[in-house]
Amino acid sequence: MTEENTIYPYDYYELNYSEPLCSKEEVVRVGSILLPLYFTLLVVLSCICNILVLVFLLLYKSLRCLTNVFILNLDVADLLFTFGLPFWASYYIWGWTFGNVGCKAVKFLFYLGFYSSVLFLTLMTVQRYMAVVHPLSDWERCRGLSVSPFIVWILSGIVALLSSLQSEVMIESDNTYCEYGSVKWKSGIAYFQNAFFFIAFVIMCYCYGRMLRTISKSFTNNGHNNVKLTFFFVLMFFIGLAPYNVIIFLKSQTIHPFIYCDVSIKLDYAYFACRMLAFSHCCINPAILVFVDAKFRNILQAISRRFCVCL
């Protein structure tokens, strides 16, 4: 696949610009170098960090607490998402080389990780909201949401499966793509993802607004560490995914000025930056645990000391 006839993977549908000639060779070159390198780094960091978190939760934390159960499931979602990154890295260099089944599988992992992460973060926020604002309810004692992880995985799997089934391998000008079967499906999935993210964000904002009001009137700090931990998870996830959702919405537009070559190229570079930021969420949660959870921080320090002694 030569650079002269290469069209960037996600630009499969974006061939009708207002200008007769729209060269994206520079965009292709930057993307084929920058994104694979960044994704490779993410895979290494995510695997190491998330496996450490899994071991920490299983050995040192009580899974009777629903917050820890949500963090455990969030960690699994991040690992599943990570498993698809090597395929995306290859895609940006050589095009799609893993066949139709591989195309659907990688899209499935991407959407399963995205939807389950948003749902688990929303549930963590709701659970902390019930614990702080309605402390005497059954929800606060971790009964009302005890089956929610199973429901989250089922719902996320169904939505991810519907999205992945619309993906297929396409060949255009000797280039191979893993894309949706039509522009209609591509735009529809982008709009659904935007709406899903926006609704979850509104719910989180409402819950945190009520929690802050309650905490400001409280004379005790019981359980507030979990509130702080959940808040940082949600904050970093929002910082990563909000710009990405905005940019995929803009890129799905087929009206002026978005079909101008100049605007499209700028959106491509913005897409690079936003996608790297969004995909970073798979290794952010362990960093938050180090910052907020003293026990996890102490265990990591002990592991580091032992590793240095071995060297």
TrEMBL record:
<dbReference type="GO" id="GO:0016493">
    <property type="term" value="F:C-C chemokine receptor activity"/>
</dbReference>
<dbReference type="Pfam" id="PF00001">
    <property type="entry name" value="7tm_1"/>
</dbReference>
<dbReference type="GO" id="GO:0006955">
    <property type="term" value="P:immune response"/>
</dbReference>
<feature type="transmembrane region" description="Helical">
    <location>
        <begin position="270"/>
        <end position="292"/>
    </location>
</feature>
<feature type="domain" description="G-protein coupled receptors family 1 profile">
    <location>
        <begin position="49"/>
        <end position="289"/>
    </location>
</feature>
<dbReference type="InterPro" id="IPR000276">
    <property type="entry name" value="GPCR_Rhodpsn"/>
</dbReference>
<dbReference type="GO" id="GO:0060326">
    <property type="term" value="P:cell chemotaxis"/>
</dbReference>
<feature type="transmembrane region" description="Helical">
    <location>
        <begin position="72"/>
        <end position="94"/>
    </location>
</feature>
<dbReference type="GO" id="GO:0019957">
    <property type="term" value="F:C-C chemokine binding"/>
</dbReference>
<dbReference type="InterPro" id="IPR017452">
    <property type="entry name" value="GPCR_Rhodpsn_7TM"/>
</dbReference>
<dbReference type="InterPro" id="IPR050119">
    <property type="entry name" value="CCR1-9-like"/>
</dbReference>
<dbReference type="GO" id="GO:0019722">
    <property type="term" value="P:calcium-mediated signaling"/>
</dbReference>
<dbReference type="GO" id="GO:0007204">
    <property type="term" value="P:positive regulation of cytosolic calcium ion concentration"/>
</dbReference>
<feature type="transmembrane region" description="Helical">
    <location>
        <begin position="147"/>
        <end position="165"/>
    </location>
</feature>
<keyword id="KW-1003">Cell membrane</keyword>
<keyword id="KW-0297">G-protein coupled receptor</keyword>
<feature type="transmembrane region" description="Helical">
    <location>
        <begin position="189"/>
        <end position="208"/>
    </location>
</feature>
<keyword id="KW-0812">Transmembrane</keyword>
<feature type="transmembrane region" description="Helical">
    <location>
        <begin position="106"/>
        <end position="126"/>
    </location>
</feature>
<feature type="transmembrane region" description="Helical">
    <location>
        <begin position="37"/>
        <end position="60"/>
    </location>
</feature>
<dbReference type="GO" id="GO:0009897">
    <property type="term" value="C:external side of plasma membrane"/>
</dbReference>
<feature type="transmembrane region" description="Helical">
    <location>
        <begin position="229"/>
        <end position="250"/>
    </location>
</feature>
<keyword id="KW-1133">Transmembrane helix</keyword>
<keyword id="KW-0472">Membrane</keyword>
<dbReference type="InterPro" id="IPR000355">
    <property type="entry name" value="Chemokine_rcpt"/>
</dbReference>
<keyword id="KW-0807">Transducer</keyword>
<protein>
    <submittedName>
        <fullName>Chemokine XC receptor 1-like</fullName>
    </submittedName>
</protein>
<keyword id="KW-0675">Receptor</keyword>
